[in-house]
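Write out this protein's structure.
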Amino acid sequence: MSDELLEHAALAALCCGLAFAPVAAAQTLKSGEQVYKEVCMVCHAAGVANAPKFADRKAWTPLIAEGQAVLTAHAWVGVRGMPAKGGNPNLSLEEFARAAAYMARAAGGNWKDPDAKMLAAIRSEEKKRIEQMKAKPAK
């Protein structure tokens, strides 16, 4: 092989390798505790706007009974006095769901951090909730 062909072959191999390399390392997701401390604690520590206080079993019991997918989806899109995504538009659904699970566990719930199946269930409930909100007449 000529030197020119070897250079082209090396360049082609390099380009192909780069084409399949990940563009950026996967973003590290925050834990439920981290999200709670950075976002949720503002309201849930003091009960602002009737938010259920962190670790308050009495306040959280009926919410936990709604189920992880339902409660997380409703909170994700905004419910009662709570803004969508807890007021932080930069949160991913998975981080938000981890925070919801963290708070539920602190109040006696047995919620796990969401896996792919739970995230799909939350997305399904989110769609239902958005449709319910659209159907309600504006006050």
